[in-house]
From TrEMBL:
Belongs to the ABC transporter superfamily. This is ABC transporter. Keywords: ATP-binding, Nucleotide-binding, Transport. PROSITE patterns: ABC_TRANSPORTER_2. InterPro entries: AAA+_ATPase (IPR003593), ABC_transporter-like_ATP-bd (IPR003439), DrrA1/2-like_C (IPR025302), P-loop_NTPase (IPR027417). It comes from the Archaea. The keyword Transit peptide does not apply. SMART domains: AAA.
Amino acid sequence: MNIIETDLLTKRYGRTLAVDSLDLSVREGEVFGFLGPNGSGKSTTIDTLLGFVYPSSGTASVFGMDPAEDGKAIRQRTGVVPDGCELMSGWTGRDHLEFEIESRGVEADVDAQLERFGLLEDADRVATGYSRGMTQRLLLAMASAGDPDLLILDEPSTGLDPNGVAVMQELVREAVESGTTVFFSSHQLSQVESVCDRVGILHEGALLATDSIDSLRSTMGATTYLRVSVDRVPSDVDSLQELDAVDDIRIDGRNLQVQCDGDAQLTVLNHLDQLGATPRHFETERASLQEIFRSYTSESTAGAD
Ligand SMILES: Nc1ncnc2c1ncn2[C@@H]1O[C@H](COP(=O)(O)OP(=O)(O)OP(=O)(O)O)[C@@H](O)[C@H]1O
C-alpha cells in the first residue's frame, strides 16, 4: 500500500511553478529520500501533503485521504520536522513537547522522550534560548512522539553536530522498525544515502528520477572509478577505451583512473596485464549519491538552457 501518492500534483505561486506535475508514490514502511537543490519544491510538496497549501492542479493523497479536505486527520498521524520552524515565545522545551503530544492526541512519556534526545536537563528552559542543534533535537523529539504512522523530515539535520546526526539516523532506523514510513527531504546527500530505501530527485519542481540508490547508480552507466598504479604506462593504453565497459581514462604519471561499469574492474586489470603493465596497487570507488544527483540535475539544467 502507498502511504503517499500524488498524481500530476502542481503548485504555482503567481508565475513561479513551485511543483510541476509530480507523480510520487511512497510505500508503507519505507524510508523515502526526497532530494533536490534549494528552491526545487520540496517544502511546497510537503506543505501540500499536510494540507497547509492547496494544489493548483493534480491531486495528493496521504493514508488514502485528500490533504485539502482531511489535513487535520493526516497531521494527527504524522510527525513533522519542518524546515525553518519558529518556536513559541516563552515556552519551554517541555511545553512544546507536551503541546505536540496533546494536539496529536497521542500517548508518550515526556521525560523519556526528552532524555532520548538529550534534552532532559534543559527541558524547563525557554526553548527560544536553545542552540540550533538543541532546537533541532527538540523538533525531532516532538515529531517522533507517540510513534506516528508517518514521519516527514524536512532537512532534519540542519544545525546538528555529528552526535545529533547519529541520534537522527538512529531515530529513522527505530521508526522504521516500529512500522513508521519516513519521508526524508534533504540536500544532505550522504545522510539520505545511509538511511533511505529509495530516493526521488526533484529539480525545478519536477521529479527527474525515482529509484533505489543502486539502480540510480547503474542507470548512470559507468559508475565505478578504478584507480590503478602501474609499473609502466603502456604506449597503447588507449586501447582500454575500446572495451565496452570502459567510459573514460585519465592518466597522471603512472596512475590511471578508469571510469567503468561496476563489475568491470577485473576486465580492466586483465587488459592492462596483457598490455604488459603490472598493476602495483588499485582501489575502486563507486559513484556517490552526490555524483548521481549532480548528473541528474546538471543534465536537466543543461537541457533547459
Ligand atoms: N509562499 C510562497 N510564495 C511565493 N513563492 C513561493 C512560496 N513558497 C515557495 N515559493 C517558491 O517556490 C519554489 C519552491 O520553493 P520550496 O521552498 O518548495 O523549495 P525547497 O526545495 O523546499 O527549497 P529549500 O531546499 O531551499 O528549502 C521557489 O522558487 C520558492 O521561491
